[in-house]
Amino acid sequence: MTVLWMVAVLGLLVGLAALLYARRLARQLAQLTQMYWELKYEHGELKAKVDPRDAPAPPPKQTFVPLSSIKKS
User: What span, in angstroms and rounded, lies between the C-alpha atoms of 39 and 46?
Assistant: First the structure.
């Protein structure tokens, strides 16, 4: 009978340890998730500041080349 009580108490302790471990992992996961979304938001803000598509393109250079300067083959 004593062995059964020892097994029951040991099972209870293992269950309690597993519960504490799972709660700690859940807290870490929540923290990592929050850090991920903050980093993703900051990356989007910085990308919007640097994105060259929003900046006006410089006018293309135009040079005049006279036809007489082109050699005839």
Answer: 10
Rounded average pLDDT over 45-55: 79
pTM > 0.85: no
What single letter denotes the amino acid at residue 10?
L
What does residue 6 show for φ and ψ, rounded to 5 degrees? -65, -40
Output the CA torsion sign for 59, 61, 64, 70: negative
Per-residue HEC secondary structure of the chain comes to CHHHHHHHHHHHHHHHHHHHHHHHHHHHHHHHHHHHHHHHHHHHHHHHHHCCCCCCCCCCCCCCCCHHHCCCC
